[in-house]
Amino acid sequence: MRTLSDTDILAIWENGFHRHPLDRALVTLAAAFPDVPGDGVADWPLGRRNKALVRLRCSCFGPILRSCTSCKSCGEKLEFELDGRMFAGEPAGDDDFDGPIVVDGRSFRLPTSRDLAAAAAERDPLRASIRLAENCRLDAGDPPAWSAADLEAIGDGMARADPLAETRLALNCPSCADQWEDTFDIASFLWEEIEARARRILREVHTLASAYGWTEAEILSLRASRRATYLAMVQA
User: How far apart are CA 209 and CA 215, in angstroms?
Assistant: First the structure.
């Protein structure tokens, strides 16, 4: 994995701006892992994908992830922070689950971004769960008639085998004492930071280009400290 430069950030933001959130995560990972052939990151299990995104976030923006949400009951705004190093673990791929998931005698592999995209195309939640189970099924033959219990057991088995595929946070409102769980989506969280950084870079480029007549490439080639000094002089 390589740390992203400002040029990389702009390219990722431009390439992912009009894409689905799942594709934005893959665009980001492709830039950070240029040695992965083709669109190979799309075949990573979701936990491996999320772990790589957390490690990339720590590398580019620091380990502390700050966010906020609202209480489901009283609407109170809650701020919280997470230490990304708790989720990043070892480098992606070093300790990944590699065996089949066996549920009621049926074998499944871990879902990937491709499988999630296929499930997301289904409007009905039940159909989405069935699509995910069928895509990940390793057994030959016609698919069975999936029951709700089957799908729940398959989902539980996948969650145990790949715990980083979905991060659930236990939240507690200090105002009304309500407690609930919410999902932390590292892909969306990181994209918001990439977009904010990209817009800040573009503002800096605009300011310096207007003041000195430099090209975008010339401005981005400056070290961050020198660029900040020029910006301070322009804005003084």
Answer: 6
What per-residue confidence (pLDDT) applies to 144?
87
CA distance 203 to 98: 45
Burial of 133 (0-12, 13-18, 19+ CB in 10 A): buried
Check if the beta carbon of residue 11 is closer than 8 Å to that of residue 127: no
Judging by DSSP bridges, how do beta strands 64-70 and 106-108 pair with one another? Answer: unpaired
Kindly list the distances between the CA atom of residue 104 and the CA atoms of 130, 157, 185, in Å, as whole numbers in the listed order.
16, 10, 30
DSSP state of 191: H
**Identity of the residue numbered 229:** T
pLDDT tens track for 124-152: 999 999 999 999 999 988 888 899 999 99
Residue 168 has φ and ψ, to the nearest 5°, of: -105, 130
Q: How many CB atoms lie within 10 A of CB 57?
A: 21
Strand partners, 78: 69
At 19 the three-state DSSP class reads coil
